[in-house]
Batch of 2 targets.
Target 1
Amino acid sequence: MAAAPEVSLSSEHVQRLLQCAVCLEAFNQPKILPCQHTFCLSPCLEGLVEVRTRTLRCPECRADHFVPRGGPGSFPNNLTIIAFLELSAGAVRREAVFGLPEAREPSHQSREVAPAAGGYHFVAEDPMAAGGDGGNGVFSCSVCREERSISRCSHCDQLVCDECRRDHMTQVRYDVMRTIAQIRRGLPQITDQLIILGRKEVQFQNRCEEVKVDISDVFEKHVRDLKARERALQEEVDVFVGRELRGLGVFQETAQVENASISSFCDSAEASLSLSRPITEGDLMEMKRQCMEHLETIQCYEDGITRPPTIKQIQASMESPFLTSTINNFGDLIITSRPLPSLETPSQRLPSRIDDRDLQDQDLSPESRLSRASVPPQLGRPMNRTVETIHQASRAVSISPTQGRRERQVNFELDQILEASRQPSHVRGPNRWDRQERRSDSRLTGLEAGRAPSIMRQIRERTRHRSLGGIPTTRDVLDEREESSDTDNDLLPIELQTELVRRRVETEGLGDDNERMGSPQLEAAFHPTPQPAIRSYSFLPEPLQYGNAVTETAVVLRSLEEETGPQGSSNSNTASVYVSTPRNRYNQKGSSMCQFGQRGNDLGELTCPRGVAASPMDDKIYIADSNNHRVQVFSNRGVFVKTFGRHGQDEGEFDYLAGIAVNGLGQVIIADRYNHRVQIFDRNGVFQRAFGSEGCDPGHLNYPWGVACDNMGFIYVCDKENNRIQVFQSNGSYVRMFGSQGSLPGQFVNPHYIAVSPDNKVYVSDSSNHRIQVFSLYGDFLFSFGSCGNLRGQMKFPRGIAIDHQGFVVVADSGNNRIQIFRSDGRFYSMFGSWGCQRGHFKGLEGIAILADGKIVVGDKENHCVQLF
Amino acid sequence: MNFLYIVSLLLTLNNSIHATSRHFQLLDELNAGINGADDRTISWGLADDDDNTLTNWNCVIIGPPRTNFENRIYQLRVRCGENYPLDPPEVRFVTRISLHGVNEDSGVVDPRSIEAFWTKHSSIKQLLQNIRKWMAQKGNSNLAQPPEGSTY
Amino acid sequence: MAGLPRRIIKETQRLMAEPVSGITAVPDEHNSRYFHVVVAGPSQSPYEGGLFKLELFLPEEYPMSAPKVRFMTKIYHPNIDKLGRICLDILKDKWSPALQIRTVLLSIQALLSAPNPDDPLDNNVADHWKTNEKSAIEQARQWTQQYAKASINNH
């Protein structure tokens, strides 16, 4: 509003004061805002309302005001302005500064009053205009335009004559009646809601009853387990007593026999001597010899050389703070007013995983249960059975969300450990204690999840050996602890321990692989002695000897901790284990050390190489020579070694293969893209098996692209067109899948390549979402990084991905034609490369691999070559 | 007065230069291009960041699935003339492609096939979406494609 | 001019009737929402003596949303990028319907007098401005000579 700088009564200035700053017109229904600025109601103020927040920003001073329930019309009228307009209208109007001819057209002056609840339209002319037409201050009705006695309508604030007012009031009356009818029609909604509420109440009560039943079921099962364990322990004691008694009995018999024979000898010797019968010298000497013998025997008894076997000590060690705290905190009721998101995903996955092993368990005798627990889980089911059962159970007891209405939902969560691992930041007291107690242990096992079962078995075996010869006394346990803490590992910082174990894993090579294949004999051969660090805990009696459920929970605890480690309570893990400076000097990379391959189909030539892989066994480079439908193998210096495969659909033949991976056994896993399958070859390139066919069901593939293996031998496949990751056993049987189409966390659009990090996280290049997503081995989303763009850390259509042994992530940023290196938590570290066909330049990056010496192998599809950095 | 004179000279010279909404529409399209299309299958941006005439654009189409174009990255050059968006832009494939309506030797998209759908409300985004639709159409989706990545 | 809101008509007429010194805005003869604008470089600024062409467009929602303005003449300024886009709060989130074409153009003129390298649109220019203001101003003066004067003769 252009207020005059000096007080002036010139009509121009007055006119400007009566003009809305938004429409530059004379005010129409001027409303005054709390900030004292005035604007027309319609369309100016109405157009300013921010519908979403129900606020309005003053165009003059930018103050935000809350819009009353009735809309901006509920702001008070600026009565001063209205009165001023009414009074001075005529005079001012003639001298209007912007007196355009259009301004006098009634169409601009008459406004429609916003219809109220009903449907009538009450057209009224602006009082100012009316005044202008009259010109002498006598007002005319704004409806019929006749000059009569008029008054202000209390409904719509217009000046009207009595007649029009009557008509108007009749309309208002109809309107009110119509509204009442409308209200009546709406009433049943409330009763409906009441009925629904009643039904919900019944449902709710039933639900609670079900939850109660579920609780007792679970507890009964655990009580049964405990009972079984009790029986097993007692039987063990019986066996022990029997054997010890047998030993004593043997001694007793021997002693009795000796006693009898010696006394009879004494008797007969005495008799023959006392009869004063002549005895030959020989007989006497013989008698003396026998005497000496018996004397010796008795001497042995006297000296304690011959004595009954020591009675072994036996006592039951039942101390278990872990178990006690577990029982005290076991089970949890989750009460929310909405469905639990964390429970949805697993329960959706469930139908394919429900199995009857739980039932089998209960049929087994305690002994076989014990041994079963000590057998490592089979390859296809790595340690997640407790998770599964818990998920089953939680699905069974979670109350399904009811439509629309908010209802309190009761949820019985079976395992607080599971819960704690989901919400790692919130760890309850007893658990925390327990966790700290065994932190190094769980980390050690966590780092190499594949070994956890074998460690468990060793522990079990040792324990059993012990218990045959006598259950270890507390003293023993203490000794063991001291001994092991004297040995290196316990004194070292945790990071170093982990480092040690990791190195051990690296050097063990073949042994580990055999172990992964689940062959107990081989494994025993390769692990003659348990690791000291592990041994220090192996005799802790607490969690390991209390039957199936508890021990397995311990296993789950470990595996889950390992998964959630970088995010959750053991967040320091990432920082400490994965040092921030890489051994591999990524920031000095950028010039190509070696480039090989050129377009063509002769040996050593490449046409559109896609996936590349480095064999962990012999450090050879495997290249998916996609458009030549073959695999080519080069040495780590780029010298051609061999090739296998050709175009076709039979075994060992390819159709535009893409991803390639080599596992610890030297097996080559290849995504045979247009054949919608994965093929596996042995280290010599001999076909072993193929699995998968076109489709979108579990186990079916649709243009599979990247493949990767974890250190247990599981195969991860980017099922690109199905926008998901599938996991298979090394024999090709389907295990699980995760992901769906979309751009939310955990969803994919064309996932291309995949890699598993040394700490068992799965990194997926979610290509068309321009990001890398990170999951646990079980498909739980952990975090993601990258967004579309060409700045540092941004990416466009990321393709190949590889992870070094320190966890640094190398990403082929194909849209930007560069390689980016990230820390394991997704922070940008460095980058190199640009578009072009020279060395060090890229055109269409695809696969990435890392050689043992840290060189990065890059497949450059459109330059038809492979470069090493 | 001298000022006013020069100004009037300037303004008369200006008046007929281009369609009045051209620049602002293209600036809006440039902003939209930073975010890309919702499904990330197409993208567009200025060929030269300093080009204040906003004439030449580099665009990318990712070939639609279940076609021979699948997953290939097709680069295009789009030229928005002075009468854009009243006149449709000129479009040329940089990446070699075999597609009806695209000149085999030059990669130029037949202007008639663009005019067929172009209106003054169209945008580069719609242009790219339309071309991608052509790729998925019967008769196009199975065309044998030149080697991936080759250019004109 | 059918459908053209009265506010735009009023603003146009007032712009023509009471021009602001150093600024002209003329509606396009075919499109009344499009204005050809010339802003004279403010005195005692590196842009002094230059005449800068701008285009201004009133979108459908005007005055509820801001007009779109762009420099057509090349200008060396930390808040104006190579494409002529202007970083000015009242053209974005600080727009208010009480503002008018006149006030917008005055603000742009003021922006020429007082560049704000702390809220840059063109980072290179802003860095130049912050590290060596003298040389940046010299550069701006040179560009003014080169582009804001030559344009009269070249066209």
Note: Chain A touches chain C at residues 1, 21-25, 44, 47-48, 57, 59-60, 62, 98, 100, 102-103, 108 (CB under 8 Å).
Target 2
Amino acid sequence: MTMLTRALLGATALCACGFAAAAQETTTLTIATVNNGDMIRMQGLADAFTEANPNIELEWVTLEENVLRQNVTTDIATNGGQYDVITIGTYEVPIWGRQNWLVPLNDLPAEYDVDDLLPPIRAGLSVDDTLYAVPFYGESSFVMYRKDLAEAAGVTIPEQPTWDEIKAAAAAMNDPDAGIHGICLRGKAGWGENMAFLTTMANSYGARWFDENWQPQFDSPEWKAAITDYLDLMNNYGPPGASSNGFNENLTLFQQGKCGMWIDATVAGSFVTDPNNSTVADQVGFALAPDAGQGKRANWLWAWSLAIPSSSDAPEEAKQFLAWATSKDYANLVAETEGWANVPPGTRTSLYENPDYVAAAPFAQMTIDSINAADPNQPTRDPVPYTGVQFVAIPEFQGLGTTVGQEFSAALAGQKTADEALAAAQELALQEMTSAGYIQQ
Amino acid sequence: MARAVSTSRKAVNTALAWGVALLIAFPILWTFLTSFKPEPQAVASPPVWFGFDWTVRNYVDVQNQRDYFDYFWNSVILALGSTALGLVIAIPAAWSMAFVPGRRTKDLLMWMLSTKMMPGVAVLVPIYLIFIQLGLLDTRIGLVVVLMLINLPIIVWMLYTYFREIPGEILEAARMDGASLGREILYVLTPMAIPGIASTVLLNIILAWNEAFWTIVLTTTNAAPLTKFISGFSSPQGLFYAKLSAASTMAIAPILIMGWFSQKQLVRGLTFGAVK
């Protein structure tokens, strides 16, 4: 063997070693999530994914919801590439999808069974039939009420109540001397706090944020009726200081037995029926969100979903993770380790056809009915130019929704009348939509 | 002659001082107590003060969820690194301003301070883009530089104030003895200003430790300090106050302990030159 041949063989062997090392190279996925029970559980179970995919490592960044939104927005807008998988809501998906900030997910493997995703949730995560995020858990809103208090007060809350029936039940169950308030609703200002509830309540009264020409509609009789009834309900039968109450505050009040009724996220169903944290766990009844005979119920649609920012340098590995975390197999894994009641709800039809799950989650049927009753593409009685049930999927909505929410929160605190708050909301929305160019002058 | 203070006046002053101290320390005390409560009792209304079921479960959960020490070491490196780098730049700067002031020194000092009045978010995008270009995102070195720049005006101002209390004649004498500029600063000025420098260092470590905007925005995992650790325990849905309190207690404990042991130096430094 000549020197040259030896040298060539040696070089070939070195190259082979190099390629082998490259083939073994691991990819690290950085995943940004919010801190809630389902997400934390997923972190605990992620070993199952890394064992099946030894070439992928996972790094978790858990952040408070608003901090997450700010960080991820900054990173995507500047093409920073810090995150490979992000947790986002149904509000961001249509906006970011349209801007090509997210990797399209239409090519998920057949075994993922994308058609099993609940149609309203899938619609909320798609833009022009292109799926941009996959749901980790989905929710709507419904009525949670105390069966014992309703019975004692002699009222029946039907499965599909009207607002008049809710008002009557709140009046009957209200007993402030005993520390029980007829109804607890959100009052804390914020587009995702009081405006999530108030927008759905307004939808059920036949109101809408904007007409087809983006003209704000807060001066309509429908908005006036909705806000007037909301203030009447809360002033007469709500807890004191309700203008500071958001989801967590009302959850605490309800769990401590201080609310006759609470209309909020379906995900709360598992919290209020959890005997470890709720003093009224065995006394909770559920009903669909109320309506006012306008063809729309006051229920929203939300899904915390996983998406891949277009700045990720490992989109294929990220897709593998997404497909695992939102798969039927993942649901089975959670059921095996933590029980069926802990499976992330509101994403797949098959889950609600599973008798084990339906038996373990007393709120299952009401949750699926509520989700199916929501239509993000036609959220209101009259036509609108936007998508989103409890929000308007435009970038300006975060700021506008919160400012308008402050007006209604001030009205609840007694600092303004309903008319003053509505007039201010109309003015604010008109200004914002004009300066943002939606309304041409 | 010392002024005579009556016993009753003393008692009132003491009670008042305790009252104010308790009021200021109340949020920390409350956080500490909450960290030992089960989640439902953490949000109980009316609040449960001491008669709750004490548990260390929250601390165990927090540690199981994320490794505290990863974040802790990052906090230590960022706080110490940014303060040390700041001193290297600020000592010569403060020396020149204090001992060889020019016509624009006062304006310069005011301008430096004015940069503290600008909200950080106003320059978020440019800084973020610079970090991307330089490959500094989620690196300790990047964060050390940013924290140093944020606190530099305060370091310069504090040192300037301390240096001005030192008679220039002493430095002049050193110069006449043949000391170079570097030796003058290192062997004459610095030892005399040690109390001032110590309090500047302590204050800046505290400020860098608590900085919670840039440290959250510019990091993901590798350089994430305790501020990022805390922010992950706030939850949009569900009970989280007890765990958040446990995480907060773990995050503030080191700096609280450091402040406790160095309070003598801190007070001495902050009152340096106050009494002539």
Note: Chain B is about 70% helix and 0% strand.
